[in-house]
């Protein structure tokens, strides 16, 4: 329940941030004032032509919550025109926004903010069940380990008594060895679940990068805290994926006079929006147990990249295929750089 509440809170915060980033596109509201309440300019129409403020300012609690619900569910209506274009005609959406036809679409940065908040909202809403199952698995492993340790201690006591009487200790040795093997297996399983890293040596070098090595040590020492910090920093610095990715896209069109960094930035931001929405679908599918769907989702990113490249840059099929292959490689490199940046942050 707490995960769902936290997810709804993230969704509301994302809507507010996206609405703040998305410029207003007209809108009515009966005008009662003759001059703008912000700058006192005489009003002509529903908005002030000097500062842009709406002519009519709502002052009721009902209007406030109407604006909140409108922001969450309608996004000024533009999101319902943007999302289908993003899914089926990403290249045309990118090109139209670059060329200035923007009134019908959500801006890339506003949509990106909303998608990131939505992703973490869904994550918090769906992680509760997985977290409970994980805790139950770890607890069961710990109970079995305690039982085996007790049996080993008892057998060692019997072996010591038999040895003092001069009796054969071979049966006890065999039982102790069997239970020790089972105990080692349980410890390995628990380590795989992230519940125990007792076998990690303190002086073991995990990475050649000191910050990453330090972060991995801290993660191994406390996996739950490490996971929380990774989520927090990934959420906080998600915007960094845009400047990290833009130079890689520029490499696909080096020194081009037709396409500029602004074009690449719009392309990258809309592409990240789609990949974030795809990850949301994967999380929901995983929570519903649709494992077969997740396998097919791996085919979607390259197809979407290909369609967006062709539409946004007007490429021929062969040229788009070559650049799609390179873009997949660049995207993996950008994600690795982002992960290393996040891991470095967790070391402080």
Outline of this structure?
With 348 residues, the chain is an all-alpha fold. Helices cover 71% and strands 0% of the residues.
Keywords:
single chain, 348 residues, mainly alpha, 13 helices, elongated, disordered N terminus
Description:
It is built from 13 helices and no strands. The protein is mainly α and 348 residues long. It has a domain at 128-203. It is elongated.
State the distance separating the first and last CA atoms. Answer: 32 Å
Q: Helices and strands: which structural class? A: mainly alpha
Low-confidence stretches: 1-9, 25-31, 195-203
- How many extended strands? 0
State the shape: elongated
Output mean pLDDT: 77
Count helical runs.
13
Largest sheet: none
Rg for CA atoms? 28 Å
Note the run of SSEs as H and E.
HHHHHHHHHHHHH
Query: Can you give the helix content as a percent range?
Result: over 70%
Architecture blueprint of SSEs:
Layout: H1 2-21, H2 61-73, H3 79-88, H4 90-98, H5 108-164, H6 170-192, H7 210-221, H8 223-236, H9 241-250, H10 261-287, H11 291-297, H12 300-313, H13 317-346
Helix pairs in contact: 1-5, 3-4, 4-10, 4-12, 5-6, 5-10, 7-8, 7-13, 8-13, 9-10, 9-13, 10-11, 10-12, 12-13
């Amino acid at each position: 329940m707490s995960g769902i509440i936290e997810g709804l809170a993230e969704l509301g915060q994302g809507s507010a941030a996206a609405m703040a980033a998305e410029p207003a596109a007209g809108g009515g509201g009966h005008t009662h004032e003759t001059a703008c309440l912000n700058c006192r300019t005489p009003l002509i129409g529903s908005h002030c032509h000097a500062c842009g403020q709406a002519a009519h300012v709502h002052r009721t609690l009902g209007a406030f919550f109407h604006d909140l619900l409108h922001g969450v569910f309608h996004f000024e209506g533009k999101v319902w025109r943007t999302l289908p274009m993003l899914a089926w005609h990403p290249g045309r959406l990118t090109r139209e926004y670059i060329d200035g036809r923007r009134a019908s679409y959500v801006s890339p940065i506003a949509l990106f903010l909303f998608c990131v908040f939505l992703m973490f909202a869904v994550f918090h809403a769906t992680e509760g069940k997985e977290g409970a199952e994980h805790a139950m698995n770890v607890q069961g492993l710990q109970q079995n380990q305690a039982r085996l340790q007790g049996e080993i201690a008892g057998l060692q006591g019997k072996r010591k008594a038999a040895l003092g009487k001069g009796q054969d200790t071979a049966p006890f040795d065999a039982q102790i060895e069997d239970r020790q093997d089972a105990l080692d297996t349980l410890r390995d399983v628990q380590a795989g679940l992230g519940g125990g890293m007792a076998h990690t040596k303190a002086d073991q070098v995990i990475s050649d990068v000191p910050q990453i090595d330090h972060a991995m040590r801290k993660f191994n020492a406390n996996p739950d805290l490490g996971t929380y910090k990774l989520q927090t920093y990934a959420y906080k610095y998600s915007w960094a994926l845009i400047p990290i990715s833009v130079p890689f896209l520029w490499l696909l069109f080096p020194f081009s006079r037709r396409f500029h960094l602004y074009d690449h930035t719009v392309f990258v931001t809309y592409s990240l929006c789609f990949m974030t929405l795809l990850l949301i679908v994967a999380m929901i599918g995983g929570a519903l147990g649709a494992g077969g769907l997740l396998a097919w989702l791996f085919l979607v990113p390259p197809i979407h990249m290909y369609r967006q490249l062709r539409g946004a840059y007007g490429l021929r099929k062969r040229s788009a295929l070559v650049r799609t292959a390179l873009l997949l490689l660049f995207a993996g490199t950008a994600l690795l750089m982002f992960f290393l940046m996040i891991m470095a942050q967790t070391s402080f």
